[in-house]
Amino acid sequence: MTKVVVIGGGNSPEREVSLRSAAAVADAAQLAGFDVMQIDPQNGWQVLDQVDVDSVVLPILHGIGGEDGEVQTELEQRKLMYLGSGSKASEVAFDKWQTKQLLNDNHILTPAGDFVTLNKYKTHIISKSPHVLKANRNGSSIGVYVVHDPKNIDQVKVNQVFDFGEYAVLEELIEGTEITVPVLGERALPVIEIIPPHDAEFDYENKYNGETQELCPPKNVTHQLQKIAQNIAEQVHKNLGCLHISRTDMIIDRNGKLFVLEINTMPGMTDQSLFPKSAAIAGFSFPELAKQFVAMASSEKRYT
């Protein structure tokens, strides 16, 4: 019987969501017939030393330490089989500004933006119109401030973004229909339309409080646009060198233009998360999805 090690928790601001994601994946893997062990690296990566070299590792960690290449580097040093993108691809994908530049180089549309310090932000032309300010290295909408009225900027919220680093990503605010497209293997799964509560954002709180509508199939996105979005998600996955799974967040403006907002290399896997919801529409039960995870991780030739 294949031994599967599910990693969850860690020390990022997304620890609690990671624990829930890891528990859901571990349950699914057990239902799929695997011998499952769960570990939490909260007290350091030495916990990985107990993992047998023949085990398949599912690192269900979100945010810093989980999606930035850190856990991937630890797994690679131990030559362990694992799910997801490698350390270098993870590091780039976690860096919003690097990702934005790479996508633009590959002719994938993203909102107009700049890489700014606090002082540069205060005088930047983009900050004079509706805009979004994002911490450069964070996940799950943590460290994001959406400004609809630039005449009423909350300086406390601005400072909270820059608490995460000297530089932040400043982008024009694109109004429209929010969607997300998971990728499993190299193929896009069904598109999910995201409708936050009225006059609210799809922020960390609204992702997990059950008040956001997540429609699959989408209600307000044409079949043609869904196909285009799936194609873009596959391109983003490939251009960034991602492996096995990813989820690309996009927005469709009022003219039907698709803008890529960001990519997640280890999407949430809780019972409320978007990746397993889309996979279910594609015909994958959670245990079947776990089987896919283990199969992809165990077949990847990372070490030669």
Overall description:
This protein has 304 residues and is α+β, with helices and mostly antiparallel strands. It has helices at 15-31, 70-77, 87-94, 96-105, 118-123, 155-162, 204-208, 223-239, 274-281, 286-299, and strands at 3-7, 35-39, 56-59, 81-82, 113-116, 131-135, 144-147, 168-172, 176-184, 187-188, 192-195, 213-215, 245-253, 258-264. Helix 1 (15-31) crosses helix 10. It starts with a strand and ends in a 5-residue tail after the last helix. Strands 9, 10, 11, 12, 13 and 14 form a six-stranded antiparallel β-sheet that branches. The model has no long low-confidence stretch (mean pLDDT 93). It folds into three domains: 3-83 and 287-299, Rossmann fold (3-Layer(aba) Sandwich), CATH 3.40.50.20; 93-110 and 173-275, D-amino Acid Aminotransferase, Chain A, domain 1 (2-Layer Sandwich); 113-171, 2-Layer Sandwich (Dna Ligase, domain 1).
Question: What key phrases describe this protein's structure?
Answer:
alpha+beta; 3 domains; D-amino Acid Aminotransferase, Chain A, domain 1; 14 strands; globular; 10 helices; single chain
